[in-house]
Request: fold
Amino acid sequence: IVNMLLQMLEEYQGSGFVIAATNLEESLDRAILRRFDEVIEIPKPGIPEITRLLKQTLSAMKSTPGMLWEHFAGQMDGLKCSDVTRIAENAAKRVIMANRDTILEKDFEAAIAEVKRHA
Reply:
């Protein structure tokens, strides 16, 4: 795939520009990055962004009063947005499978452990 992408970039003669995105930069051959004039790195989310992402992803669900959003966000610090979203979705699945309507701290704890175990 890398060679095919390199060849396509070399042969591209169209007007305009090419935008590419990845969250697997460490898997890329450096030769690909040299083909681009600009490389912009978007950092992983910090605790405030993770907290907002969790709340947004789970906005359709009730949560226990006094939910420790920042505490759980701190446990996810350094993860990609896709991992944070997956944790939130896994926590929501636990609520549904338990036939509850409220997300509990134990749902987050289990979801975080599961994603980190498979990371």
The mean pLDDT is 89. The first helix runs from residue 2 to 11.
